[in-house]
Design goal:
The structure is a homodimer.
Chain A lengths: L9 E4 L1 H7 L7 H12 L5 E6 L12 H7 L7 E6 L2 H9 L4 E7 L2 H8 L3 H15 L5 E7 L12 H14 L3 E5 L7 H15 L4 E4 L7 H10 L4 E4 L19 H10 L8 H15 L7 H4 L10 H6 L1
Parallel strand pairs in A: 1-2, 1-8, 2-3, 3-4, 4-5, 5-6, 6-7, 7-8
Helix pairs in contact in A: 2-3, 4-6, 8-9, 10-11
Chain lengths: ~325, ~325
């Protein structure tokens, strides 16, 4: 920890994509749009708006096109869509997204379960997406799912993960996300893999995507920060999970993470009170409680009044 | 993180003290005893059995005497009781506890609210307890509540906390706990305070006591480990909180912490499957869900069977 932390961390909000996809009920399009428009004004760096995926596979995101068209665009926010294949990429390009987030799993079994393709087929498919985006100003990010462990195959070798990063870069992608899809990562592993990434790929932009499945979400984020990571996905309220990953639960909570960073003196540019107000609106929207803690407990600095009988005694 | 972690961490279970005191219902004495007897066989280093406190102040622990007498004693486990004053200490000594845990708050306002005394009065009272324990084999630990922040007064200066440690040692106490009573600590602060403790007090045994009030519990534990801490309080299921501390919620979950340490290759000597079985018994005992995550999600290494349609395809 003595080596210090990055002075500034970029917060990438994924609540309307990863957050919503496993929800029991469909959030109406207008509510999604209102939520994204409100998030656009909180200071987050990116918003993963939706996923252009088959409505049969993820019914909750069946309105991807409508959402992408209806949201307002803030100049300082990068609007991202997850795309599983060329068709999704074409829809995302037509919808004017700023960035496409491609995804495959380093675990062959998880890729078959999640994408219905082998990893090699996924990579091959990415070439067509790169071609489709060529000549546009749209940037391409490559996500590596199960980078810290697969619920079917277990921990994946770091070398295999980093080789896949190399394949991404060779295919023409500009940045990479290492995703702990089902919350299997631990801090020591995170520090080692992020350090390994930095050593091999230098300044290639890297995002970390953690779930709090086993309570280690913010501990893993801390370990990543210590290894120099400065971009993180997080989900408002800590909701979310992958419908094709057994045992997956919520992403790290955006407001809890922003709160921790603020307490540590690390700049995010995010308006925490605005974020907390949005997090507190989620239970009414979703019909259930949220995992995020700060929305319930208040910020560390929100002091309580001294009890009346003590004020009298003092 | 490059400086490494302690090779072995001591787990101190507080579920039947800190865990139960804020519960809405009284857990029957026989259930407490059965839980402690089961915990004695999991490999935890200490168990904080109960608190010898006024039954009016903490009705849930009104059976302190009965519990302390009825539990079985395992030779490798240190049995501790929290004592707020001389009367409590005498009862704990009569009940044959191995260790007394004295407590005061570094925040004057919190001490008044929690102990109904000034900090100076608390310290003065400790002299009588030290005298009462003299000549016995009972060890004395001093806890500093609100060491990382007070819900009434805010963050307390590190110097003030460490001066209190010195006062504890001067009074004849052998070991110290720094308690984040209402979950206000952040990792940077934890690293600094634990490092400051180590620099000033060398090998004096130090326990860290964290709550997960704002989601930072395990991140704070990680920061403490990095500063060399190797003793931690934790509560089965992550239940608990201080009835006199507004906004206080559960302790860090014993099973989630032991799981994280195991994944990081740090030895605890604790039987995680046994601990998970006990954590999973809590909802039936308490009548509500528990915050602990691993009891729900399973361990990172608990793999799922490959889906049948993929096995057929391979």
């Amino acid at each position: 920890m003595s080596t210090g932390f990055p002075p500034r961390v970029f917060i990438q909000e994924v609540v309307t994509r990863d957050g919503l996809q496993i929800e029991p009920c469909f959030l109406p399009t207008e509510d999604k749009v209102a939520l994204i428009d409100a998030l656009s004004q909180t200071g987050v760096a990116k918003i993963e708006v939706t996923s252009f995926v088959s409505p049969r596979a993820v019914p909750n995101l069946a309105d991807a096109r409508e959402v992408a068209r209806a949201i307002r665009r803030w100049p300082d926010v990068t609007y991202v869509a997850l795309v599983p294949n060329l068709r999704g990429a074409q829809e995302a390009l037509e919808a004017g997204m700023d960035e496409l987030n491609l995804v495959l799993s380093v675990s062959e079994t998880h890729n078959l379960a999640n994408m219905r393709m082998t990893t090699a087929q996924s990579l091959e498919g990415f070439r067509a997406i790169v071609a489709a985006a060529a000549g546009t100003r749209v940037s391409l990010n490559g996500s590596i799912a199960t980078a810290f462990g697969c619920p079917f195959e277990g921990v994946q070798p770091a070398e295999k993960v980093l080789d896949l990063v190399e394949a991404y870069l060779a295919a023409g992608l500009q940045s990479v996300t290492l995703a702990d899809t089902t919350g299997m990562a631990n801090p020591r592993q995170v520090f080692a893999l992020v350090s390994g990434f930095r050593a091999r790929f230098g300044g290639v932009p890297l995002t970390l995507h953690f779930h709090n499945t086993r309570g280690m979400g913010l501990a893993n984020a801390l370990a990543a920060l210590e290894a120099g990571a400065d971009r993180f996905d997080a989900s408002l309220g800590g909701i979310g999970g992958c419908p094709f990953a057994p045992g997956a639960t919520g992403n790290i909570s955006t407001e809890d993470f922003v709160h921790m960073l603020g307490q540590m003196g690390i700049e995010t540019g995010v308006d925490l009170p605005a974020l907390l107000a949005l997090a507190r609106s989620l239970p009414a929207l979703l019909g259930h409680d949220i995992p995020g803690q700060v929305a319930k407990a208040g910020r560390s600095g929100d002091l309580h009044p001294v009890p009346a009988h003590l004020r009298a005694a003092q």
